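B., you asked whether I could sanity-check this one before it goes into the benchmark set. Here's the sequence:
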Amino acid sequence: MEPASWAALGDDELLEKKISQLGLKLEATELQPLIQQLHDELAAKGLAFMPPCHVGDEWFVPVGIPAIFVPFFLVHDRLRKLERKMILEVEGETPEWFMKLMRHEAGHAYSYAYQLYKKKRWQQTFGLASTEETDFYRPRPYSRSYVVHLDDWYAQSHPDEDFAETFAVWLTPGLDWRERYKDWGALQKIEYVDELMRSLAGKPPLHQPEYRVKDYDFLNIKLKTYYAKKRKLYEDSYPDFYDNDLRQLFAAGADVPERVKASAYLRHRRRVLMESVCQWTNESKYRVSKLLTRLIERCNQLDLHVKADDPQLDLRLSSYITTLVMNFLFTGKFKRTK
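And here's what the prediction gave me:
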């Protein structure tokens, strides 16, 4: 299908389309110059391998395949609009964000293309690539042993990600990484990547298996199925909520004058609270929004009320919700351990 045939559809109709039916290509889109920018950055470092890019369902490099997949929703304005409605944000939607992700994925592509993860010194520096990956990790926000490139201290999640993040920092134009990471243990990692990449200058990849579309049929699903699965990834982690905590936050009794329903107050302040929590935790808006929805529903069920003129309530609420989100970041659960 041509974009003109589906871009004007309403959300319900569009969600019935398979992603593979949309005829999406990276060529001749606003993404193509950004992909070229990545290749120019690599060439400026004297590197010969230019990772091929394809349309995928998310940001990723397949294990063992040195190719970058860019999420389909970035290819067209109509799909970005749908993604924002369904998930509340669009990962990689600005040129700066897009390039940060591209440099990270290029690190994975180079690791596979040159079999870097098999090198003894690579393993000594970053760890074993065979380390089991888990959905959640416990970052140390103040650690100086890892670079800080993507959100959530992502370099700490796995040796592969540590290398990819370090590679991305090394590749970033205009970044004086020696000064930025002076006195950090992570500086030794960047210096190793610098030495390693200099040794690869002008050399073709050792491993570049042919990419076959039929091996990657993850786009052969309807958009509504894609978003149902994507939302489920977030929703599965929601815990039972905290009646005792909510009763402490919203303690206004029946005799309190000018009280309002807690659920109404939360609805009114929802966007402000969400923006504040997301800004300081780097958690996705979708997950925080769903958490607020559950809190609102529970407040309504408990018939909780709040003083209408409590000047400290927003602060207490932001602190409480931030605590839940940080618990999730560190443990994979919002529920606190007693």
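One thing to flag: The chain has a mean pLDDT of 88. Otherwise nothing jumped out at me.
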